[in-house]
Amino acid sequence: MLNGLDRITGGGSGVERAGEGIAFGTHGQRLDVWRPEAEADRPRPVLIFWHGGGWVKGRRQEYGFAGRAYAGRGYVVVVPDYRKVPGVRFPAFVQDGAQAVKWVRDNIARYGGDPDRVALAGHSAGAYTVAMLALDRRWLGAEGVDPGIVKAGVGLSGPYDFYPWTSPRAVEAMKGAADPAMTQPITFARADAPPLLLVTSSDDTVVRPRNAINLAKKLESLGAPVEYRNYRGLSHEEVVMAISKPFRGKASVLDDSVRFLDKAMP
Fold this sequence. Notes:
The protein has helices at 2-8, 64-71, 92-107, 125-135, 138-142, 168-174, 210-222, 236-241, 253-264, and strands spanning 15-24, 29-36, 44-50, 76-80, 113-123, 150-156, 196-201, 226-231. The chain is of the alpha/beta class. The chain has a single domain (2-264), classed as 3-Layer(aba) Sandwich (Rossmann fold), CATH 3.40.50.1820. Strands 1-2-4-3-5-6-7-8 form an eight-stranded mixed beta sheet, sandwiched between helices. Strand 7 (196-201), helix 7 (210-222) and strand 8 (226-231) form a beta-alpha-beta unit. Helix 3 packs across helix 4. Residues 31-219 form the BD-FAE-like domain.
């Protein structure tokens, strides 16, 4: 409904879906590509956006509003899907994320994107993938991708420091992990991490603000480039809703994230 409302209210003005249902990876994954309609004098920066859904639900088709929003600000936007629980457990969804980055490296130029200016963004479980790919070099390395390809990351309402697991969804998603610490983005905080914008909201009862607070503090203590934002009065869902055209007045999530990305990828 949100995606349709965004489209009806003009969220797609000046942008186009340049690719739909494009196959990538080794497990039947698909992705969509959004971009500005206007010609550019040089390749555009690229943003890969992963949706949320607690690792159990969500479809890339429902997040066209995010693709249109960032494409409207000059980005070539890739919205991938990924395998879900209970069909898979950790680390399958992170591996799928790494394969999406590999596809971008190898193919985004044909859509007008710059493979040397790639950033990651996502909401909730999608933000978890952002943090894991940005901080833990193993996943991109396993796909033959230089982890340095990630120039910046935006995590919206993501879980980064949530062990011991208390929510049923986290328990199911991480079930079987040999070392729980290896599932936690905060474990991989490092001084040379790419710039990260960590967003939370005061009324988020799904992924508590402490996740963003703790990771931001850890990165800051190491000297890594990190920004932290807490949007007062917003719920977990409203943070990502604020990217869409009809709910953009709720908070400056889109403006703030674009400002951050533009600075990281001039």
